Amino acid sequence: MAELALIDDALSALLADIHPLTSERIALTDAPGRVLAEDVSAQLDVPGFDNSAMDGYALRAADAGKRLPVSQRIVAGVPATPLAPGTCARIFTGGEIPPGADCVVMQERVERDGDDAEIPADIPLSDNVRRRGRDVQAGATLLAAGTRLEAAALGHLAGQGVVEVNVRRRPKVALLSTGDEIIDPGKPLAPGQLYNSNRPMLKRLLENFGAEVVSLISVPDDFAQTVALLQQAAEDADVVVSTGGVSVGEEDHVKAALEQLGELNLWRLAIRPGKPLALGRLPNPRGEARFVGLPGNPVSSFVGAWLFLRPLMGALSACLALASLPEITARAGFVTSTGPRQHYMRVRLHFTPEGALADAFEDQNSGVLSSCIDADALAVIPPETQVNEGDSVACLWFGR
User: Fold this and answer.
1) Domain-embedded: residue 206
2) Which residues form the MoaB/Mog domain (predicted)?
């Protein structure tokens, strides 16, 4: 029997010779979740002028402790005029600090008497003033290439008046489901058949990883049709993902079809769950599509997606944030032992004053998909290892 491959070897084979996809220019409103293809430089200081951090009174710090006439009223969006010596200005949050003022005292500390204001003593210089360029200075790198455009980054760009951005093209993925026993929801089940749980699960995960799923294909247990449908899937895709058909059964045709059409780089891994996994390449008009054949068991597909599809989408998008899962060390709240394969256990993370605690789901069988719904991470248990409660374990945090 062929020796099982290690996960590091599998990732190396999967990501070898990967080149980031080309870029395209799109509207900022269409850019959530996309990955910047180039650095973006700031064109404006943020904030663009000194402004007040709160409602209060703008004055010279040297005049603190005095009774000052209120010489102007400044609201956000209205230019301020120079502050007359020996006066203060009523100002509201976001209002421009008038030339001549160098601090703001909050309104709760000031007593008004008609047009005058009693200013408390000891107001520090620059108190409650947001200085121009405090957040961003014009000319600086606003966001680096490879940044995934989530909420804060989108706001950062909008604050510069950006309306279009240059982003990586989304990886196009063809998603195949193999096996005569796999039936789409909505159809009646015959004895021995199962509804297709992998398809919607993997489609959602791939979209979360930044991919565009361009085709959903059902593959029967027939070698010739498997070859034809694999070839069809590769035509318009950067990545072809299949579920099932990569084990050693007589009706598992994907591995043989891949070898006939293209190249098999790796088959069968020393991990649990997910031992039957095939990695390879399929020719297409643009050169080649990467192939990832995941196991048919839903938990194995779920784990395989996080371990392999996420970094593959990150490499194609040149996005380091997707390249690997964040790792956190936690105390084990469970007891387990492993054999020759590395185990990826579904766990919940609890954060306590003593640090993170990993609580494993009791049933770690690869067919128990319910364990993935509330899982926060995968606890990585090396081969031939005994873990007792309280031991330190490395966990790959989903960060969803």
Assistant:
1) yes
2) 174-315
